[in-house]
Each structure stands twice: as C-alpha cells, then as structure tokens.
Amino acid sequence: VSRGLPNDPGYKHGQLWNLPMIHAPQAWFIETGRPDVHVAIMDSGIVQNHRDLSPNIDRGLSRNFYVQDHPNDFEDRNGHGTAIAGVIGAVGNNKTGTVGVVWNSKLIVLRITNQFKADKSETGGPARMEALEYLLKLLRSDAGLKIAAVNLSLSWDMAIHPDDIKKHPLYIAMKALDDTNRILIVNAAGNDGHMLTEPNRDENGGLVYSYPALLPGLKNLVVVGSIGRNGDLASSSNWHPEKVHLLAPGAGVYTTVLESDSDVRHEKNMPQYGYIQGTSFSAPHVTGAAALLLSI
Prior knowledge:
Blueprint: H1 9-12, H2 18-21, H3 24-28, E1 37-43, E2 63-64, H4 80-89, E3 106-111, H5 126-141, E4 146-152, E5 156-158, H6 169-179, E6 184-188, E7 200-201, E8 207-211, E9 221-227, E10 246-249, E11 253-256, E12 265-267, E13 270-276, H7 283-295
Parallel strand pairs: 1-3, 1-4, 2-3, 4-6, 6-9, 9-10
Antiparallel strand pairs: 5-8, 7-8, 11-13, 12-13
C-alpha cells in the first residue's frame, strides 16, 4: 500500500491547498486508507466511470433511493455527490487528477436526490428515510462492517422547533444510527451566513429549522463549517460556538466533478475536474479523516 506524498497532478501542482491545511500529508506517511474501511455518502449519486473514483466505489453496497429510478441506478445527474466523493476518497497516487483525504477506502453511494440545488424538497421525502434505514440495516446485519462515517452535505429545513423534534421519524432514524456507536454522522453547517440556531423562512414566511445539524442528543454528530485559504470563517458559512463542531476548507476546493455541472469552475482541458465551494465540501474533509483514523 502506498504511503507518503502522492504523485497526482492536482497535489503536485499546488491546486489542493486544502489538504496541507488539514495536515493530510503528514497523516499519509502513517496511513492512506484501508479498502475494508467504508464511508457512506447520502447525496445525488456519483459518476461511476470517473477514473479517479471508479476503483473506490463499492457497487455491491451502493444503492439508489430516488423514487424515479432503479435501485441500482446511483449515477450522478447533478454533480454535487461526485464533487463530495472526490474530496473524501479520490484514488491517490495514480498520477491522475486529484487525490482524496483517504486514497483507498470504499465509497458506499446512497443516492437520495436528482435535482440537488434546483428543488430543495428533493433532498427530503421518503428517500432520506429509506437510505438511513438501509444504512442501519447494513450495520446491524454485519458486526464486522467498518463504516467510518456517513457524509450528509445537505440540510432539511423543517417547521419543527428542536425542542419538539424527538417524535419525528427523522430524529428516530438518526438516533438509532447514532446509538450503534459505529459511525460518525458528518453534516455540513449550511451556507446562510448566520448563526446555525437562527431559523430560516420558508416560501410562505414560516419559520424553519436546519436538520440534521440541530438534532439534539446525537453524540456522534459532527457539524462542519467552512474556512477559506487564509483560515478565516467563510462569509457564507453558518456558525455557532457549540452547534458547529469543526471548520474545514470549503472555498475553492479542487475535486472530481460532473462535466455538465454549471456550479463548478471547470479545469481547462480537464472538464471532469474543477473548483467548487460551500460547507458541502468542508464536511467531506472530516469524513475522509474519519476513514483514515479507522484504517490505523
């Protein structure tokens, strides 16, 4: 297994400023990720034939929960999930493109949405519940399965105050996952640029709260905000002195992308790579680090 500094062009040419910021190169001399360690990504899917992702996808455990497609169709049509996957676990030391925080661990892709940014409601509904229940079933049915973390670079705005959330099916499912004590739940803090506990307004002017970040009593929940190259909090990142647990790079992160993703500043002559920003891309740094730790 390769250890040390990778030969991937994105790293060698200094595009991956985010990885030295979290001291990933120092960690790689100790461990780069074992293939029996997994991470789960609940998102828009993944570009399965991407040369920097394909070898690390666990196709046997990955599933689609988006209602309009086949259970095995976890192909990304949006780009959000593919960008997250690259930050976590793009193949390392293959002289290609970029490198993830963890190089060799396996990605369990749980596709729960198709239009990630165009319609926020599509990140909710039954798909999220089915994906959480599937993940819990995997852990309960195989005591030897190592899933370091589930990456949730999304939020669900709900008109329920955190004091009243404990009877909601989402809380019950997340609490059951948390109670296994075998998986970190890594959640992006969001990009509203305000204190996390401040409610947003829905289209009718009603108050809505951000979940799962505000779910109470989850000891394995890690909420991640965004910092830029200078180490300062990104102006768009939500924050809170207690509810946001960690900060990680999220402004101009170089990663694997869907060639048609309009939210990406694509690499010239390499449209399958590009730069993207937001707390969605801060959280995967923590997810990747969890896989490195579980690999040691």
